[in-house]
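Self-study notes.
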Amino acid sequence: MEHIEKSVDVNAPLSTVYNQWTQFEEFPEFMEGVVEVRQLDEKRLHWKAKIAGKEKEWDAEIFEQTPDASIAWRSTSGVLNTGNVSFQSLGPAKTRVKLKINYDPQGVIENLGDALGVVSGRVQGDLNRFKAYIEARSTETGAWRGEIHGREVQGENATTATNQSLTRSQRLRSDAPDSMPVANENASGKLG
């Protein structure tokens, strides 16, 4: 299993940076190769990405999440990966985001890309684009302030300005309770 560790300093307050990171469905806006992230519930995500020219899908589970501190996940199907993103205040308007990822490259092309540092560069690029994304907005687009510890999910302690009483998974569901949430294309054709 390969390991990558990268960081970026973002010119925004800790809570703003953390809150934006919890908006997983917006990852395609700044993560290269990520086609879609669907929030299935507070703990589970479904990913679609293009890796080494091939579309891959996997499910991931958040098993540890503490507001303004860290989020840890592991894949439960498909592409094998685990990771942790941590957030550290560097002052009232500056935050360090540190991303650690463990993954298993599959096939000759992915192994070659890994050996050439392609994956490492892509992760740093994603962090740099996240920095630009949040700094350009100067505020988060939403937030989920709940906690996850193993199987235990503790309710949201803060809400978004636009969806005062809904959890992040409820915001993603359509009006029909049995339907799966889907990403919509915005005017630019990007998923969001």
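Second protein, same conventions, sequence then structure:
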Amino acid sequence: MDAVEPPGRRRARARLRRRGRKQVPWVLAIPGVAALVVFHFVAIGFGSYYAFTNWNGLTHATWVGFANFRSIFGDRTARAALWHTLELTGCFVVSVNVIGLVLALGLNRAVKTRHLLRSLFFAPVAVSPLAVAFIWQWIFDYQGALNRLLGSLGLASWKHPWLGDPHWAIWTILVVMIWQFSGLAMILYLAGLQGISEEVAEATLVDGASVWLRVRAVVLPLLAPAMTVSVTLTLIIGLRVFDQVMALTQGGPVDATETLATQVYKQTFFAGHFGYGAAFALLLTALITCMALTQLVVLRRNEARL
């Protein structure tokens, strides 16, 4: 006859089983957390250290303090790269969110082809930015599709070296970025619109509110969480712009499209100034972090007021 297990021992064994089940998810997460720490945070730590040195990738790194940052803010090209980054980001965030919101409002209705149109507008997001930029390079080339179209329409005087003009080159990059990522903002706003109950929309119709009044007074406040996510993501994408610049203009003509990201690449791998390039990377990281967090806090406060 089997011995009866004391109640105290059964309770202890049950506690051990529950504790083991709670610890299993943490154990499974250890490899991923370790990889994140080694390849992300440790790399950021080393990069931050080299930003304060004159390391050239070969010899021993010598501590120079804030000399690299003084050189950045004292160099005309570096200051222009910072301005171009902020200029592109500001125009990109505003444009892509406005276009994405308009597309979302239009395709949220019972349009027969709305699913097809949603897929078409979102498709560029899934394509590599480098591949998209090469396609647009062919369009903006002097012998490319855009100038050929202008010539066929009898507008030959409008032909322009779009990528070779210092005044127009940065705006061609902006056009490419807006074309590729408007679908991302559209999807985020569509997700927000799906959360708005039909009763709310029907109530505004019964009250006789105009379309603009419904959007301004009802839809936009309820879309505040989606807007927070969309604006934050597009801000980060804009500040990190690199592929489009390198594929279309490589920072030219005459440094007219240099950004902080292209300066990181050029100073590090072309000029061999690894310490100076790390300073650019640290500046870009700090800029993205500060602007993203500030924007997130401001938008969250606005959400709380609505």
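Instructor comment on the second fold: The chain has a mean pLDDT of 87.
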